[in-house]
Design goal:
- The chain is of the alpha+beta class.
- It folds into 3 domains: 2-65, no CATH class; 74-111, no CATH class; 116-218, Metalloproteases ("zincins"), catalytic domain (Zincin-like).
- It contains 6 helices and 13 strands.
- It has helices at 41-49, 52-65, 107-133, 170-182, 191-200, 204-218, and strands at 2-3, 6-7, 9-15, 22-27, 30-36, 74-77, 80-83, 85-87, 90-93, 96-99, 140-144, 151-153, 158-162.
- The strands form 5 sheets. It has a 3-stranded mixed sheet.
């Protein structure tokens, strides 16, 4: 199909848990359209046709994201947009001073490796604290490099979290952890599940809005 004067291949996928149409730029000229179960594919394609402005922004963001990180590059960290400050063999990111060991040109790699270590230290302990607050038992928390989701909860009570939660505001990362914890009570996205989420995180809609607005900037 053609959107904004540009041709795209569209991969259509039905998802039983989807609550709305979702359009993603999978490749330079490939779109992935998620269609809720029982919803109209034709309506989904009309939805995609209206996303020309979003596609312009997304392609521009991806182009900028491919650029090397350097002095003044702005990044999300703990919910704030921070300009990196390179100083010799170190880079300052907010309160974090990160050594540029090895190839000092790979600023992004060094910063993201540091964030990953922070996430591995902080997110599991935060997860266990929230689980204890709500009387839930978790087998383990794992922090991984996930490219398409913020978290997951397995039937074995193992919760996986994306290290990029460290880049979000604390209330948003808490919402994601609580979201996965509530799957221990409701292993679905039914109305009962969202009622459980609302009990433990009344501001979850604000967190969802932040994710819709800024989530692609992080992923």
């Amino acid at each position: 199909m053609t959107i904004g004067g540009r041709p795209y291949d569209v991969v259509i996928a039905r998802h039983r848990r989807a609550r709305r149409y979702v359009l993603r730029l999978a490749d330079a000229r490939v779109l992935r359209l998620t269609v809720p179960r029982g919803a109209s594919i034709a309506a989904g394609l009309r939805f995609a046709e209206r996303q020309a402005s979003w596609l312009d922004r997304e392609e521009r963001r991806r182009h900028e994201g491919a650029e090397p990180w350097r002095q003044g590059t702005r990044v999300w960290f703990r919910g704030e947009m921070i300009a990196l400050d390179l100083n010799g063999r170190h880079v300052q990111c907010g309160s974090e001073r990160i050594a540029l060991t090895g190839d000092a040109r790979d600023v992004r790699g060094k910063v993201e490796a540091h964030w990953t270590r922070l996430a591995a230290e902080e997110l599991p302990s935060r997860g266990f604290a929230l689980a204890a607050t709500h009387g839930l038992e978790v087998a383990a928390f794992q922090v991984r490099n996930q490219r398409s989701r913020w978290g997951a909860c397995s039937p074995r009570r193992l919760i996986t979290l994306n290290w990029r939660l460290i880049q979000m505001p604390p209330q948003v990362s808490d919402y994601i952890i609580l979201h996965e914890l509530m799957h221990l009570r409701q292993a679905n996205h039914s109305r009962r599940f969202w009622r459980e989420v609302d009990k433990v995180c009344p501001a979850w809609r604000d967190a969802e809005r932040w994710l819709r607005r800024h989530g692609t900037e992080i992923l």
